Amino acid sequence: MKTLFILVLTMIFSLFIKAQEIGISPVKIWTSNDELKDPIGIGISLGENFWDVKFKLEYIHASNERSYYGHLINNIILYQNSHDIENVNSSSSLNAYEISANFCQKLYKEYNFYSGVGVTFDEFKLKRTGINSGKITNFDNDWRRGVFFAFTFSRDQLFWQPITFEALYKIKWLSEGVYTTQIELPFEKIGTGQELQLNLVYKF
Q: 50, 104, 114, 127 - which has most CB atoms within 10 Å?
């Protein structure tokens, strides 16, 4: 899975070497997952326009922390029978790599609306630290692929000619995968999510 992702990303990136625009944005993500509960992150995008279609390559990073009283190492379900519990700090992060095709509809003068569809490769990471014991547990990285719909409202020439403002909303569906039932699955139920971005885009 990881080798396929790197190969696809390399081919896609080669198409965007001469990108017409670059954007940066704060990102708000909503999920139903306890480890990555509604984090705020940052996104970077490259865009290339062909007629009324904008192709975008995006990277999104977000992280979250939570604290609870329980087991530090909870990989094996049988470990839940242990009485060795303590205060635990749990740190999680998301790295998403996305490509999409977005179709433009002209609204009025410098105002545009885009509707798009894309594919995403998402990497989830998790580390837990025992506050009392100082012990650390790192979970294996969880890779998911999926699809999303994107809806974007944009305004050209926000401050001056090269700058465009975009408000973007996404709905994402990620693969569930096949897992053994004898280990804890911290990102098992993160299959559907929503995302809001406020982009500032510089056009070359």
A: 114
